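A quick aside before the break. I want you to see a complete sequence-to-structure record at least once, exactly as it would be stored in a machine-readable document. Don't worry about memorizing anything.
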Amino acid sequence: MPVLRRPLEAWRDRVRQIEDLGFHTVTVADHLGDGWTMDPMLTMASAAAATTDLRVATGVLCNDFYHPVHLHRSISNLDLLSDGRVTLGLGAGYRVIDYEVSGVPFDPAPVRIARLTESIAVLKALFGGERVEFTGEHFQIRDLVGAPQTVQRPHPPILVGGGGRRMLELAARSADIVNINPRLSRDLSIERIRHELSVEGLIAKVDIIRNAAIAAGRDPDELRLQVNMLDVRVRDGGAEHHWTSGLLGWLPQGVYDQSPLVLDGDAGRCAEALLELREATGITEIHLGANAAAVAPIVDKLR
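That is the input. The structure line, written in tokens, reads:
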């Protein structure tokens, strides 16, 4: 999502340009602190109003900051306002600073994941439009009817992002789209991080997802798999465009050069690399970073 700045018509023009360039979805992150300013719900609503076909998505909301009852109402309204162009991305929360500046306790991972599990169950029940009763460890819902009815049925696509086994298995059981993240924690060895960033590492996580889906009685082929490109260097028309995720900032040089999450070359070669990634892993959705104009030649090749 383009950073929201005045004049607003220039911001709307940037969003419309993303649609015109052939992108499928524009996503907005959800952070606090560090100068982050954009409210996901309001910017998605504004972006949807400025466009015709472009989907809007959260990439991803920190579940601990949203009660599922209120989140359901916001997403249901947004699905109506956008005529069914919303994707709800949820995560268990990972940026400690977001918790520190807001005063929300940063609970251990098992607690955050359990709370996310309950939240998704409440959301799905409310999206069903029936009268909901829910008694869990973290949420208790009493005699509430989910309204309004969404355009997308049975509900807007739910995306769950994660890199560890527990999150991937949760996504396989309950999500429509699984965003597969490499674990880039500073407490991991460089060799482990190389594996996380490798094709073999991605395939291992895809296997976890497929096995968990089968165990839950779901067809794994119905799940959509997604990854985020972390470093993009695309050359087009004699110019080089570069975008790098802040997640890589602390890694030693050369650690991620051979990663499939890195695109380096002219637009044609980058497009080929994405098709090769799809063939090797089944991943069909690619987040191409924050510089839409830079990666537009790749999208054009894929079209």
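Two observations worth writing down. The radius of gyration is 19 Å. The chain has ten helices and 13 strands. We'll return to this after the break.
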